[in-house]
Structures are given as structure tokens and as C-alpha cells.
Amino acid sequence: MKLREALEIIHSDRSGAAQIQYLLGFSATPNPLQTFLQAFLLTRQSSLAVGVDTLPYGDLIGALEGRDPNGYAGAAIVVEWYDLDPRLGFRRLGGWARSAIPDIVATVQQNLQRLRAAIQRLAAAMPVAISLPTLPLPPISITAPPQAHEYEAKLWTEAWTFAGWCASRRNVRLLNPADLDRDSPTAARFDFRAELGQGSPYKLAHASALAELLSRLLAPEPALKGLITDLDDTLWKGLLGEVGPAGVAFTLQGGAQIHGLYQQFLQSLAERGVLLAIATKNDPALVDQALARPDLLVTKDSFFPVEAHWGPKSESVERILNAWNVGPEAVAFIDDSPMEAAEVQSRFPELRCLRFTANDPSHLLQLFDTLRQWYGKSAIRAEDRLRVESVRNAASLDASRDGFLATLQSRVTFHLSRDSGDDRAFELLNKTNQFNLNGRRLTLPDWARILADPEAFLLTVEYTDKFGSLGKIAVIIGHSRGASATIEYWALSCRAFSRRIEHATLAHLFDRLGVEAIALDYAPTDRNGPVREFLAGLEISPKEPVISLSAFEARCPHLQFVPEDFPAHV
Amino acid sequence: MSDLDARLSSLFLAAFPGLDVGAVRAATQDSTAGWDSVATVMLASLVEEEFGEGFDMDEAADWSSYQAVRLSLEKRLSG
Fold first, then answer.
1. pTM of the shown model
2. In this complex, do B14 and A7 lie within 8 Å of one another by their Cβ atoms?
3. Residue of B35, B36, B49, B55 best to disrupt the A interface, most CBs of A under 10 A
């Protein structure tokens, strides 16, 4: 991004938009990094007005230690070597004598310890994105290039130990140096003149690249949920109908390594909770045999559903999306045939179609990189891993809802609290579109602020039945005052539809809160039709969405069996 | 308006969004809201990005008006 473009984005009219504030932890002159970060955060969150606060010049760690983390949606911390010891910069003349090196290393160790404590405190309140030193070390010790000196190795050891700690902490997102290296070549980062002139060490292009990556860590795109793949000349080399299940290849020996690597990647996605399905024009019996090959690098049961027939692939995709209960915008389709991809794309314009190019290995690395961007998440939760199993189970249930409910051996567990540290609940609320009361999203500071109110409540719901656990599948935030309560936020995972969990949830709230009426802060959105249907089923007016206990009991007779079929454990 | 003026004016408008389009060439540090030392650093960065010419802060310290920036830039560009 050009600096001028960044300024134009910042100065664009956002009147009326909700304001959120980020913190930039950077000890040098904040601009232009601050400007770029603000512009990228605005671009990624177009419905919000975004501000970026900075720290006083020259003391990153001390300033972070003294900063109140409340009120921020996130923090970007940019560490350079001079933050860990000023002698590792160019604006202080502390001496580069050989005898100073042990003390420099010791100082870096001490300051990294302080930095850990400061980050831990900030990350308790908000997501923290952090980048390790991006600029080269100064020539403290003279070794002939390209030989590295012992001191450099020691400092990098300290930095990488610190990096390992960061990457393992909740709410801390470490910027991958490899991604920065790709976007900003190391030799073109340092602006020595600007560093000496105004304490601004980055070339504009480097500041832009660094800001963009930090913004992606702080405001990531929602990850895609599913991937639909072709088989022949995609998952393996060869046409199954011609060479048979034993003839398809996916190894180096068969000249088909690229397909084996693709299989490995899919297996990795499946283990992270990504839904996988197959759309192939093939004989289903042959497909079944080929997928059962024990040397396949992605397991057969990672795929559901498997659509194998001779009809259009768009029909397969439609059935797969229905089975998953996922919209096309959350799914990618991969096929070696441009014609098939075009046919699917024309039917589902929002679906992301990619071509598998088997004769160009370099293409595979680009494909992996794209998929990593689409499916990567900052953390994998237990619910992500349960997703595939729950989709498969839901599809095998009796189509008759009442019959199905009666046979599920359902167990709904409610947790009523004001726990603002519940990451899964926060994530669920902010990513659910279909059963979402009003489509409103919450920032972490707002989440914490609402739950700090003594009259507020947070209800989370977990679900298990004879087919296994769906994990935490619903979150409700509201306030209870006297004989009435208001639900302001309510999201229910699409994986848990058609089980009347929403009805059981209302029943539980009436019971636990001891209220006579519950109001719902409902607002229609383009996507929340399931909420509208739920309200209609209980005869709740969307214009005045309130229901009394007596009306609820009268209109929801199925809940008479709640104590038996929906035992609530609080 | 010369090409240099057109490009430089657009940088001023990016740096100072409150500036009236017709008043850019008469802008001075005193008459322009938000034109402080931080804005001067930003302006120097914008000029470097647009014209490929970097200015030290010692040089940019004399940028008290649009015309001063223009003169400084013109000298540099003419070699």
C-alpha cells in the first residue's frame, strides 16, 4: 500500500460507525507504521472506525508495563534489537567493544523476561500480535561475511526461545518471519537516514508490509469451513475408470508425488476440523475401493459426503453443502478440469474454485499457500475437531424430527456465568450468521465490559447425544432485572439445528433466572432466517419480541419432556 | 497547473484532509490545521514515495509553506 493511499483510507468518512481502538507498541517514531496499520485495520473492518494509539518514544518495554490494557480491541507489538539493549541500535553510542558482548546478551535476556510479563498481562485482556526483530544486528563483532559470530547466534537463540513462548500463549499471535521475508526483502527494510534523522527506521515498503501482516493477525478473515475435491488427476494421478483402484498413483515412484503431498495436506486440514468432501464423475463402487487403499495419505473417513456419479458436479456440490449445512461462501472447490470448475462456479458464484495443475509442481506450493490463508486459524479448539463427526452423524439421523429427537439420548449442559475468558463462546458469537439473534458482533473490550455488569449473564450450551459430543454450540448474553430478562446476543451453531436446543435454552433461562418474561433483541439480517422461524414457531412477534413464561409453556408443549430428554446440568 | 504542482498538491490534500483544493498552493504551516513537526515528517515521506527524493529533517525543517516545499523539491529534481 502506498502511504498516500493509506492516508486517504484513514481520512475517509466513517461517521456513524462503531469506534474501536488498537494499541501499537513500537518504540521508534510511530509514523509511517501507525498510519499503515490503521489503514490496513480499517480495510479489513470496513464497518468500523478504527483508531491506533501509540506509546512514548524510546522505551518499549517500560511503556508496555505501564499501559492500561482496557479499552483496546488488540495490540500490535513490534520489537527491534535496540528495544532489548540500546547498544544494538544506531542512535546510541554505548560501545561495541568485545568486552561488552556478554553484558549485552545478559541485558537482552533480562528484557525478554520483562517483555514476557508485559505481554502476558496485555494478552489477558485482548489479542496481541507480535513481531520479532526485523532489522539486522549491528556489526558489534567483526567477522568476515558470511560467517556468523557467536554473539549473533546467542542473541537469536534468546529471540527464538522467546518466540516459542509467544507462539504457545493464548491470545498471543506471533508474526511468522518467513511470511515477512516473502513480502519485505531483508536488504530493503532499513532506512538508515530516516533512523538517524527522525528515529524512523523503516523504509515505507517495509512499514507497509509489516503493518499488513500485523493487521491480519489482529483482524483475521474468518476461516473457510469446507473443501470439496475432485479425485482423478487431483487426489491421485490417473483415471480410476481406466486404471482401476490399484492403478491410481500418488508417490514419487509413480511419478505422482504432487498428489501424495496434496493428500497429506488434506489430512492435515481434516485434523484441524475442516470438512472434506469428494465430487467426482466416477463409478461409486470403484471410488469406494480406491479410497479404501491403506497406502492413501488421507483417510477414507475424512471425506463426507462422497458424491460419485456421472451427473453435473454442481449437483454434487449442492448436496454436499446441504449435508454440511454450510453456505458456498465458506467452501473451496478443487478440480484439475477448468471446465468442471467453471460449471460449478457458474452455479455457485460465491464458492472459491481452484484448479489443480498436476504438471506444474510450483503451482502446488502456491495452492498450499492459498489454502493456508483460507483455512488457517489462530487456534484450534475441541469443537473444530468434532465438526466432521457431527456433520456425518446429523446426516444419518432419522428425517422425522420428533422421532429423531426421541431417539437421540440428548444431553444439554448449561453453564451460567459472567466469564469473559471463554474464548470459544466469544468466537462462536462472532462467527455465527444463521442462528444469530441480530447479527451484531462484539469486540473483546465490549465483551468484557458487558460481562462486568453484575446484572449481565453469559449462558453457554454444550450438547452430547448418542452419536457423540458437539461441544459448545450456543452462547447467549443478556441482562436480568427483577421479573424480566433481555437477551441481547444469541448464537447457535448450525451444527446443532433441528434438535430444539433453542427451546430448551429458553426453558432453562426461565427456570434459572426465575423471570416471568424474556425479551429478545431481535433484528432481521440477510442470513438469520432460522431465528425468524424460531420466533414464528413460538408466535413471538418480530416487531415486539417478548414472550412470557405462561405463553412459552403453552406454545412449546414438547418441552414437557425436557427433564427427561434434555437434562440440564448447571 | 504543472505536473509537479498537480502531484505535490495531491500529497498536501492527503496529508491535510481539511485543506481546500483551491487553497493548497497558498498553504502555510501557520494557516494549515494539523501541520506540525509530525506532519512535516509525513509530508517528507509522501514526497519521497511520490518523487523518489528523500529529504533530511534538517532540510524539511525549512518547509514552512507549500511554496517552500515546492522550491526545495524543484531544486532537487533539477539536480
1. 0.73
2. yes
3. B49
